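The authors assume throughout that readers already know how a fold can be written as discrete tokens. In essence, backbone conformation is discretised, so a fold becomes a row of integers matching the chain in length. A single example would do more here than another paragraph of explanation. For illustration, here is how one protein appears when written out as sequence plus structure tokens:

…
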Amino acid sequence: MTSHSPLAERMRPKTLRDIIGQQHLLGENGTITKSVRAGFLPSMILWGPPGVGKTTIAQALSEELERPFYTLSAISSGVKEVREVIAKAAENQLFNRGQAILFIDEIHRFSKSQQDSLLGAVEKGTVTLIGATTENPSFEVIRALLSRCQVFILEPLSTEELHQLLEQALKNDPVLSARNFMLTESDALIQLSGGDGRKLLNLLELSLEQLPKGEFTLNNVRVKEVVKNNPLAFDKSGEAHYDTVSAFIKSIRGSDPNAAVYYLARMIEGGEDPNFIARRLVILAAEDIGLANPNALLLAQATQSSVHLIGWPESRIILSECAIYLATSPKSNSAYKAIQDAQAAVRETGALSIPMALRNAPTDLMKKVGYGDGYQYAHDHPGNFTPLEMLPEEIRRRVFYSPGDNPKENQLREQLKRWWKDKYKY
């Protein structure tokens, strides 16, 4: 490892016992430790936030078990690259070089076809797959592949573990130890890292590089100045991350497409996961646009699917189109408010008795005691409507859905009034 390598890379542990954190997996009685001790390594998905050791664990396992190690990035690799690596792994087995480990970073960005191409090799034992993801694998990894892997959850590094990592770097890294400086405060480094070990070391290194000439003290003020002057380097997690996402959502809700695209660009340049952005757009389409333009949800869902299939960098165009469409759509939170109010009513009143007319009557006994009595089949009436009271008696006059003030819901308001007369007086 050269002195020109980033500090985080220079400090990357070579063995499992040297890794700081994840003791539930790597400690004396940790799950992965026990597997290594038994000489059995299952295919696995390492799920956790950035900078907590996913890549390091994979590399250390390869070193300790003396296995061939191949790595692919889901951002730049396709089915062709996957098949090439599998072929090399199979060739290694023929020469008794052991079962290869195939490490795939950001496996949640692999399309279905890319994940499908791994199934045969994992099932036959041609490779031991180690996938790293920051996203819930239940949603991002296909079921067939997930069923063939153990899922291990990695936690953000604790404050104590971050201090250990910092002390280790200051003591053991030859580049840092050769520098004439004093770290007088570490609170800002720890706080701004947000449990991300790589971010901690990157921030320490950048802070030292930007110390004014002739100054040899690194403190909280200096660290915060570095972050302020280099926002894109630290926007992916922590407070700045959430502030940017918040600004993006509020710009769309506030019908400002220019601001929406600007904050989208901020997230893209800061390295935000496009799948995360797409999911936020789906939620916003239902919560903030809703029945004012039901097509918004369809477009947002299509965007999420397209981002997953197309990949980066073309997906940024799809996200931009969706953000602009949602920002310029009429807005309504009536569906959001309706379910909020209905849930509040359920918590307040409990499980009220369901009207007999609405109850299911699959047996003769149930019919005899009145289940289904008085039910009126809507399609047997003019306009496919009958004013049958559906709510429990105790809340029969309660209104949960109030149409928003927009052309689409103004039509719904008039329709409800025609159907329900006095019940739906808004």
Remarks:
- The mean pLDDT is 86.
